[in-house]
Every structure is written in C-alpha cells, then in structure tokens.
Amino acid sequence: MLLSRPDVPRPSVAARDKARRLLEASLGPSKVLVERDACERFVRDESEAEGVIPDAVVLASSTDDIQKALGAAREAEVPITPRAGGTGRTGGAVPVGGGIVLAISGTNQLKDVDLREGIAVVEPGLILKSLHDAVEREGWFYPPDPNSLSSCCLGGNVAENAGGPRAFKYGVTRDYVLGMTALLIGGQRLQVGRRTLKGVTGYDVTALLVGSEGTLAVFGDITLKLIRKPESVTTLLALFPDVRASTRCVAEMTSAGVTARCIEFFDGSTLNAMRAAGNPIDARAGSLLLIEVDGSARDCEVAAERVGMACEAAQALEVLVAQDAGQRERLWAARREMSHAVRKLTRRKLSEDVVVPRQCIATLLERVAASCEKHRVRSLTYGHAGDGNLHVNFLWDTDDEMPGVDLAIGDLFREVVALGGTLSGEHGIGVLKAPYLPLEQSPELIALQKDLKRLFDPSGLLNPGKIFPGGAHQAC
Amino acid sequence: MLLSRPDVPRPSVAARDKARRLLEASLGPSKVLVERDACERFVRDESEAEGVIPDAVVLASSTDDIQKALGAAREAEVPITPRAGGTGRTGGAVPVGGGIVLAISGTNQLKDVDLREGIAVVEPGLILKSLHDAVEREGWFYPPDPNSLSSCCLGGNVAENAGGPRAFKYGVTRDYVLGMTALLIGGQRLQVGRRTLKGVTGYDVTALLVGSEGTLAVFGDITLKLIRKPESVTTLLALFPDVRASTRCVAEMTSAGVTARCIEFFDGSTLNAMRAAGNPIDARAGSLLLIEVDGSARDCEVAAERVGMACEAAQALEVLVAQDAGQRERLWAARREMSHAVRKLTRRKLSEDVVVPRQCIATLLERVAASCEKHRVRSLTYGHAGDGNLHVNFLWDTDDEMPGVDLAIGDLFREVVALGGTLSGEHGIGVLKAPYLPLEQSPELIALQKDLKRLFDPSGLLNPGKIFPGGAHQAC
Questions:
Q1: Which of B130, B128, B182 is nearest to B154 (CA)?
Q2: For the CA atoms of A147, A153, A154, A157, what is the dihedral angle to 10 degrees?
Q3: Distance (Å, whole) CA A464 – CA A77
Q4: Which of A38, A92, A474, B213 could form a disulfide with A33 if both were Cys (CB 3.0 to 4.6 A apart)?
Q5: 0.95 exceeded by the pTM?
Q6: Residues A196, B355: C-beta atoms closer than 8 Å
Q7: How much of chain B is helix, strand and coil, in % rounded to 5?
C-alpha cells in the first residue's frame, strides 16, 4: 500500500496534443513548458509520492492564466494538477496521471493590506514569509506558520489548510480565510466568501474549499484576516527524562491555565537525530519541549513562571529561557532544521502527521514503539503537543524494509483512530494517506464527499487520485 | 417583497395523514403534537416571518427521535422544519409550507466536558447559557454570545453560525465547532469532523453544515472547542456627540493596537429609545459605545487607558469605567433589553443584520438616514462596531407604512453591497432575506449552493423556502 500510485489513467496521445495546442494558443508558448526535461522538475513535491511526468506545465502569472489552463484541461479532457510551492508532504501537487501541471507560484503579488480593517488580499503564489514580513512590520500578525514558511505559498496553505506551531493558540489557515476567487475546472470564476470579518450569507463555500487539496477549485485572489501582533514573546526550552514526563508537563500547563502559543515536542529518537546533527543536548534527556508564550511583557513573565512551575511538577531536568532574539532564533533554527537533520540519518522517510487527544500522546508513542520493534522499523516523533498533532517519521534505507514500514504505518493509523484521533492535522490526505481514509471515515461520509467532488468536477480532471481511495469517481 | 411568504406548496392531505401515522408509530403519541392549537405555538420564531400552522410537531428528546422524524418526513414526503430555541430573526425555524416541525429543545444534555482537552460535547437543545455557566465555573470559556443566550440553543447557534458582541475578538460559532453527528433527511446518521483540536482529513463537511440554517442536516451531538476564560474584564461606556465621532473612536482603537473583546455601538435614535425606556442618558449624546477589554488585570488596565485615549481623540463627551460587577451588569442589561425597548416604541419592527467594513459604518448610516427620510420610515441602529456588524431596525405601526419599509430595506442592502459588505453577519438569510440574496451573490454561486442543497436533500423536504429566492429547487 505504501507509496503505491493511484490508478489514474493517462490521457490519450490525442488528448495530450490537444491540451498542448490549446494551452499554447491561449497562454502563448512562454508560459507553457512541454519539453520532457523541463516538465520533469514538476513531477514531485516534498513527499515520497510518485508521479507521472506531466505532458505540459503552465507557468501562470495571473488569475486569467489559471482560468485559461483550467479551460484547456476541460476542453481537452486531460487531468490538471495545481501546484503552489511544491512543499506538500502527502503528494497533493504530484501529477499522478500526467497531464497538465498548473504552477501558480508566479502569481505572487500582495495586492492589498488594509490595516483599518485588518485584512490582506494575496495572490495564491505569494510566499507565506513575504506576508508575515509585510504585516509584522506594521504591527499586525498572520499566525499560520508551517515549517516551510520561507518557500510555501498561500494558495497551497489554503488548499491544505496549513497549520504550524502557532496553530495551538491561533488556529489554522481556515480561521483566517474570509473569501477568495475560486476557479473551477473549465475556467469558471466564482467569488466566494466576503471581505468583512463577519458574514453568514448562504452556505460557507469558502470553508468547504479551504483544505480541499486542490480537488474542488484552484484559487485566485485570497482575502485573509489579520490580527494584532502580540507585543512580546518568551521562548523556553525544557528537557525531560522521557515522553511521559514531557507530556505530563503539557497537562500541567493546561491545568495551570497557560495557553502557550506553541508547545513543540521532541521524543528521544528525535533528540538523538539532533545530537547526530551536531546539537549538544544533555545526554540524560529523553524528550524536549520548546514552549512559547506571548502577549504583553507582563503576560509573558507570568506565563513563563507558570510554565516553569509546570516543568518542575513534571520533573524537568532543565529549563532554559531564551534571553534575547538571537537565543530564541537558535532554539527555533534547530526545530526548523529537524526535517533535514532526519533526512541525513536515512535514505528515505515518511513523515506522518496524525492528531490524538493531547492526553494520549505518550500512549500513542508507546504503541508506535511496540509496532516499530515488531516490524523492525526505525521511527522518531516530533510535533505540536498542545493540539496533539504529531509528526511520526518512519525511516528506511532499502526497499526490503518497505513492507515493515507499510505495516507500521497501518498500525499507527489504527491506533490513532482507536484513541479518538485523526489521520492528518495539517499535511492533508493527498496520495499517501488516501488508502487509509476508510479507517477514520464511514463509507457514507466518503460517498458524500465524492458526491461533493463530482458536483465541482464532474469529469474528475482536477487533481485526480487525491484524498479518496480508488479515486473520487469510483465506487467505494 | 417584505414579509412575503415563499411559495412552498403544502403537502397533500394524504401525505399529512401518512406523516402523522408514521410519527406516532415510531415515536409514540406523547412526542407528537397534532392538535391545531398545540401546533400553532410552533408557527413563528422571533422574526416577522409568517408560516403555515404545522400538521405535526415532534418533541424530540434524543438523536434517535430526530432520526425517526427525518425518516417519517422522507417516507411521507412532507416538509420538515427543525426548530431549536425559536429565537431566530430571519424565520429559519418557521414552517413556511406546514408539514412537520421538529422541535429539538428537549435534547438538552451537556454530555461531556473534557477540560484536559478543552472540549465540550452538547446535545443540540442545550441552552447556550447553561454551557457558559458550566464551563466558566471551571475557568474555561465558550465565547459566542448572541443576545438571546438565555433562551437560544446550541443546535440553533450552529445552524445559524451565531455570533454576538464577543465575536469581534473571539470569532463566531463556526470557530468553535469541531465535529458533530449530522442527521440527514431520511434519517441517515453521519459522524463528521473530529474531537481533536486540529484535523484536515477530507473535506470540511462540518464547516459546510455550520450556518446552513437547517437546510442540509439536523444536528445531534455537537463537539465544541473551549478556550481559557480571560482572567479579567473591564467595561467602559463612552458617549459621543454623533456617529462620526463614535466610529472615529473605533478607528482610533484599531490604530492604537487595542483588540477590544467587544465594541457595542448605538446610534442617536437608539439612545432616544433607551431614554424612552427610562435610561437617563446625557441629552448631548448622539451615539454611544460600550467597550470591553479582557486579559490579565494589567492588560485590562493598559487597554482601558488606550481606549480612554482613543475616546478623547474622537472627542467623547464622557467616558465611564464600570467599577464593579454590578455596574458592569447594569451597562449590559441596557444592551440586552434593547430589542425589547425598541419593541415598546412600535407595533412591528424588522431588525436587519448587515455587515460593512468598519470604516464605512458612518457612511452607511448616513445613506440609511437619507433613504428612510425619502420613504418616511423610522429606523434605529445598534450593533457590533468592531466587525462592522450592524442591526438596522426598521419600525412601523400600520400596514400602509410597509411599502416604504420595503423600499428602505432594498436601499439598505444595495448600499451594504456597494460598500463591500454582506447581507447578514449572524442572523442568517432565512425567509426574510432570501429575496435579496442575488444582490450580493452571483447567479453561478447561488446555482452552486442549490446544487449542494440538492445533494443533501434531493426532494427539498428539509426546511424548504429558506436562503434561496424562489426555493432551492427552482431555477434562479
């Protein structure tokens, strides 16, 4: 099941030729790549999902370009796969049936920042960090902060409903999307949602599109809500003997009424990976929390004190408080580099992205450890402990390890669902988790979602092979 | 157009008889009202919308009862209108085609409060204030606070995506619904969403159902997110010479970086209504703001000081700070009684619920005043200034005033849309605003929403006549 490519048929030669002709005629040759070598660069994202080299790649630089590409795909009846930053972890941007890749990273304008209303309007290809920088300079804040913030695009963030460490306090992308231009297969343009902070007119089509993984619509301009930037932030790092102790600290913080803005969690194997990457971490530590509180300077003082007490109650080995921005940045740099540090340990890895009730984190990790031992698989886990969102990484070097990894992943998802959790907190289902969807959702709910998909995309041309096991247009 | 009842056909006598028989057989006679006098009590909500006396009323006390009622409606092919607290302002719970009213206020258990996870599970008939009281005792907080909080039910709140004053800082009902049991026409039960704080598995069907006004599904158990209760609250009341000054104060607060938890706004006519109801308000005042800030005690001090400076910059006549809980409660009591105070001035009223960018509030009200003068209509406006959500009340006594009111409402909605606003911030579209939907939304977006409606309810039996002009099952 692992890394299997969904059975999405390739378009016929005639259809591919027609698509290329239509694209070149409507967009001009400079925006359409058709050479195999050029197209090959668009076959992967940052997951292990495997694609088919696309027949054409559209380099869109405007909403009009996106419309034209969606029109050509419909007319030629070839699949079209939208792609923003290409930083996805479940294969959402991977063209599993070839066809057209619609690359929107050239639509990258910050079109409007209205600070009287606390609203920003962005093109879908804008890099998240550009938005952060632009609004933070003015004392405003756009909280979502996936690890890939320097390279991911807001259109992809909206498609995947991206989260990040700060989601624990501030919510995920969905909580900040007020409205958008939605571009449907065929090129139809729909204005959905609103520009005001509140609004309940009609069904919340905007909310349905957020997190739909590029399978219902492609986005043009997106209207986002901003909030005020917290005045101060305090960052703490706490070392614990083991996962039971660090997760007890999370519970102690909850009891003490601390709403940290993030609580980043690392298990013992992750600490070993960090040590291997050159970070001198106390050898006694079997788990670590990186905790941030924010608010007024006085709020931070009070909260940091309570965090310190929670750490003590949970028998922390050591608690460090970053004394300045430089120290703070160094603590975070280690977190951001984690994924790359892990990559150095292994030829291949899969980072799962499950969520369990936060009181079940230690239990889940014990069960994962038992499963990995049984199947002889290496794993390590880090993630966002506040909302129970864990990135369980499975590591392997050679193909003969893959059956074990496959079994361990199945065990993980079953345990997650048994503990009342969900398969994905912020990476989406994409290609890689589609086979597991029925573990969590009933056949009736999956059937309803396939009906929704067909309503937006009757021919199944928009990002086929994603979310649904066996494809959206086949029976369960 | 005003108060016109949508053209929803009544079921045939045979269908009504069949529905009653099926309901009595599956639910037992004690849960099914069929006497005309008993049924008549369910023909209205707190709006001016007119209904048809239902043929039967189901007094559901469990999810099973809801399922059985939805099953009977489908089998007998009669319309069914869900009803929670009956406090809606746009006729969402009004049976416009007769048939069955499904009253769910008997399903009123607070089933679970898990403070380790910050989650509550409620039955849909639970009164909102019961949830507030239960969680606030434990130091937790469920922010949505519509004015009807002592009588409205959470199921209705979710159906309408209720807001309230605190929505400015804390968001609306949608921001707190994690998952639910959805009961479809026919009685099919679907578990949607999740119990964890984060989750992006599949389409966000939960978000689509929130705010769907009882037209897509009826809710069983609802899982809600809780947050920590702010430690302190400070309430201020500021008087201004006119609306330009009070709305300038709102802008000054934004510039000063104050995120008040609410900014309640009253125009001059509203102050006159308050004076007529016995509130001794300074005669110089032509507008009033009731402002609340929350956080730590120190945060409140700092924020209150900034609010005071913003008031001064906007040339407030007077600023009062509530010195204790009693004073605070008295300030709010006047706000909560507003709707009733207005009712004393007039035989009939319609409270519209529009949203405009907050910088456009004064402009909108000037245009409303001009329109009302032209059409000889009385109006007054209060609302939530932070998010630009205004309750524009039109008042009249005799039927011959209605054509003028009708014209003034049309003018209002056109101006709102022209200013970049939306028809409804928290009351929904229901019956009363359905004719105006095309002012804001394109034919294509309305057609898409009707397709969504048909997907959930192919025969159009669930709460017909709501949201869509001409009904969901007719062409635009």
A1: B128
A2: -50
A3: 12
A4: A38
A5: yes
A6: yes
A7: 40, 20, 40
pLDDT tens, position by position, B143-196: 999 999 999 999 999 999 999 999 999 999 999 999 999 999 999 999 999 999
ipTM score here?
A: 0.96
Burial of A344 (0-12, 13-18, 19+ CB in 10 A): exposed
Element (H, E) at B212: none
Q: Which residues of B touch A299 (CB under 8 A)?
A: 295-296, 298-299
Neighbours of A278 (CB within 10 A): 8
Residue of A163, A174, A199 lying closest to B355 (CB–CB): A199
How does DSSP classify residue A153? B
Which residue is listed with tokens 């609010």? B307
User: Residue A285 corresponds to which tokens in the numbers above?
Assistant: 């530590």
Report which residue type is found at A89: R
Strand order in the sheet with B80-83: B32-33, B56-59, B100-103, B80-83
pLDDT, tens digit (0-9, with 9 covering 90-100), for A326-377? 888 888 887 777 777 888 889 999 989 999 999 999 999 999 999 999 999 9
Cα–Cα dist A142/A171, whole Å: 10
Helices (H) and strands (E) in chain A, counts: 16, 19
Report the chain A residue with the minimal C-alpha distance to residue B469: A202
B45: its two tokens:
């909500």
What sign has the CA pseudo-torsion B133, B134, B138, B142?
Answer: negative
Residue A175: strand, helix, or coil: helix
- Torsion angle of C-alpha atoms B209, B210, B216, B217, degrees rounded to 10: 90
Q: Shortest CA distance to A356 belongs to which of A242, A276, A247?
A: A247
The strand pair at A262-267 and A232-240 is best described as unpaired
**Which residues contact residue A209 at a Cβ distance below 8 angstroms, ignoring those fewer than 6 apart?**
A158, A180, A182, A192, A216, A217, A219
* Angle (deg, nearest 10), helices A443-456 and B443-456: 160
Q: Which residue segments constitute the domains of chain A, with CATH numbers given?
A: 13-106+450-475 (3.30.43.10), 110-228 (3.30.465.10), 232-339 (3.30.70.2190), 346-429 (3.30.70.2740)
| B196 contacts A357? CB cut-off 8 A | yes
Of B299, B423, B448, the CB nearest to A201: B423
